[in-house]
Amino acid sequence: MAKTSPPDSSRRSERSRRAIFDAALALVGEVGYDKLTIEGIASRAGVGKQTIYRWWPSKAAVLLDAFTEGVEDYSAGLPDTGDLAADLKFVLHATTDEFNDPAFQAPYRALAAAGANDEELSRTFVARLMEPGIRVYVERLRAAQEAGEVADDIDVRIAVEMLLSPFSQRWLMRTGELTYDFVDTLVDQFLRGVQPRG
Amino acid sequence: MAKTSPPDSSRRSERSRRAIFDAALALVGEVGYDKLTIEGIASRAGVGKQTIYRWWPSKAAVLLDAFTEGVEDYSAGLPDTGDLAADLKFVLHATTDEFNDPAFQAPYRALAAAGANDEELSRTFVARLMEPGIRVYVERLRAAQEAGEVADDIDVRIAVEMLLSPFSQRWLMRTGELTYDFVDTLVDQFLRGVQPRG
What we know:
Chain A contains nine helices and no strands. The first copy, chain A, has helices at residues 11-31, 38-45, 49-55, 59-70, 84-99, 102-117, 119-146, 156-173, 180-194.
């Protein structure tokens, strides 16, 4: 979403970029999305407003880049040790730790809340942040399907939603605690539903 | 949450109460939760501010009562025809229609978004609006467990979250369409996971 990426050769640009991301994430957690401004981010980051506008067209664009850089790198996909249960529990335990971290919570919540009311922001948020996360699970399950660990007639996309949505919902709506025990039961019941019937 | 319920004998009070609920739901959809005020509700409803304050301590209290009155009555529980798949699809088709209705969407979204940032509001929202809905599914599944349609070792609460959270998340985050086809696949995969193994 950046209009022009800062030149990699410039360490000063990279420092500014990092400062802008840190400022944006901290501020949105403090004041909420509606009250977040480019001016506020610039002032907190110690850069000029024009520095931000040179790289990003809007506060949403800054935030989405800040998040994309902050969250796990999905490009490698999920681990595939051949043990689907162990792989899913391993990754979801790490995600549990991340979602229970207060430094992660505030900005992510602010963006999710703003997205509930703002359809365009929501679609960008989902496309940039949620879909890549969903996709690596879909790919891991397709591999398991090919290995015969998941039944052929399972709708893998909906199966992934049945695994991940209870987790997201507990966190976003605070309908329950995110614990390793919860994750383990979730994964076990999920596998019970997708495994081939013996 | 009402401090004093309007006397049932008074038709005028009942009319005011209804007007206040309608005004609160319409306004929160238009301006969002943060900008909703008791003054605004009173003016839209054509009543005095004091009428509202006599019955409710806050705008959150008005809204929650308005929603509680508006949503389905859960006291009767889910249908139990003895066919769990049919019962779940019947109810979730009705819920699909409801959640796709624009008149329902705006106020519910505004409240959900406000709750993502406001922990106390969120807890009340969940306790008053979401938990009663979750509970009737838990009860229906326990009945199915007793009838031998659901395996004894299933964690029923987590199973219900695996059924309902994908639905809620698609709606709230707009990660996918809510259609009867989606609901039917969701219910089928859900049942596959909870049924006793042959």
